[in-house]
Write a structure and sequence with these properties.
With 339 residues, the chain is an alpha/beta fold. 42% of the residues lie in helices and 13% in strands. It folds into 2 domains: 184 residues, Periplasmic binding protein-like II (D-Maltodextrin-Binding Protein, domain 2, 3-Layer(aba) Sandwich); 95 residues, Periplasmic binding protein-like II (D-Maltodextrin-Binding Protein, domain 2, 3-Layer(aba) Sandwich). The chain is built from 14 helices and 10 strands. The strands form 2 sheets. It has a 5-stranded mixed sheet with strand order 2-1-3-10-4, sandwiched between helices. α2 crosses α10, α2 packs across α11 and α10 packs across α14. It is globular and about 55 Å long.
Length: 339
């Protein structure tokens, strides 16, 4: 049943807002909303390629899995590209690479606009793994030594060792390229296709458990060598400098997280190297997460000189852009001072 009502309804009194306040209020709301949003994120994902399954990649993996890139406002995709990471960078398929240092140098010398912008290990970190009957360096004479690719880091580091020992390549011993990565090289040594191989962790540690001998740990020689550079194109730095700095802030923080949170770092390591042996994981972490890991991401020019040995007239500075780490230093980021 409907009831008729002939009077006026008593409405609540509404207080109107002055025109100036009407204009300012939406701006204040917008400011509050912006302040609560995540930091700026690059419109498209930033792709970073790494070229080997090695403990040297640990800070990169930590940055991704602990969401440090997200924290600093970049959406990063990691991708494993073996052998052609530099080519992917030059083709624009990825934006950064953790790739073989010699490949960066070769491409730069051919005219590519590449720059090394950070580094995390400044000595050569490879082991010469041999069959157990090879007990001394002198026993290498007449033998076959395998490397993953001729001209890449394991091969170059082997050349530096041969020079120290007074050996001549292809006279005192033979160096062979074994198709594939470190796991394939390890199997080649175990099965006797070669007598030894320049192998990095964790594959070298697996080799010890399979009966091989670690004849030489190159790191014990303290050979200056830019073992773990992060590189990009100079044109990308020029047009996306803020994004590059965000990536470096996350990368630096990942180095600190790796050093300071062993348990978490080992979990990340196990995920990417696909090994669940606690002894191997602990040793890989000791090498790459503590002993050889820099406290900074600065590029040491002496380590670049080690990479350039044999290239007469090559200037280490021409391969490096140190200005980005210097920007972080000016921001007050701790322990980023260049040397």
């Amino acid at each position: 049943m409907l009831l008729a009502y002939s009077g006026f309804m008593s409405l609540p009194r509404v207080r109107t807002m002055p025109a100036r306040q009407v204009l300012i209020f939406p701006l204040l709301v917008t400011a509050v909303l912006v302040a609560t949003l995540p930091p700026f994120v690059h419109a498209a994902p930033i792709r970073i390629a790494y070229s080997s399954i090695s403990g040297a990649m640990l800070p990169l993996w930590v940055a991704k899995d602990k969401k440090l890139f997200d924290k600093h406002g970049v959406d990063v995709e990691l991708t494993y590209i073996r052998g052609v990471a530099i080519e992917a960078l030059l083709a624009g398929e990825v934006h950064f690479v953790r790739a073989s240092p010699p490949a960066v140098v070769r491409s730069t010398l051919r005219g590519a606009d590449l720059a090394i912008i950070a580094n995390t290990i400044k000595v050569a970190v490879f082991s010469l793994m041999t069959k157990p009957e090879i007990r001394r360096i002198e026993d290498l004479k007449g033998r076959k030594i395998g490397v993953s690719n001729l001209g890449d880091s394991p091969d170059l580091v082997l050349s530096l060792l041969l020079e120290r020992w007074g050996f001549q390549r292809n006279k005192d011993l033979t160096v062979l390229a074994i198709r594939g990565g470190m796991p394939e090289l390890l199997i080649s040594v175990v099965k006797g296709f070669v007598d030894g191989g320049m192998i990095s962790a964790p594959s070298n540690l697996r080799g010890i458990k399979m009966g091989l001998r670690e004849l030489v740990d190159a790191a014990d020689y303290g050979i200056p060598y830019i073992n773990s550079p992060l590189s990009t194109r100079r044109s990308f730095i020029k047009s996306n400098r803020d994004t590059v700095l965000r990536v470096l802030r996350a990368y630096y923080e990942a180095v600190q997280e790796t050093r300071n949170d062993k348990d978490s770092a080992i979990k990340v390591l196990a995920k990417y190297v696909r090994i669940d042996d606690p002894e191997i994981l602990a040793e890989v972490y000791r090498i790459y997460g503590q002993k050889q890991l820099q406290k900074t991401i600065a590029v040491d020019l002496e380590s670049v000189k080690g990479l350039l040995k044999g290239l007469a007239g090559a200037n280490p500075i021409s391969f490096v852009d140190a200005s980005l780490v210097q920007d972080l230093e000016r921001e007050g980021f701790p322990q980023t001072r260049t040397r």
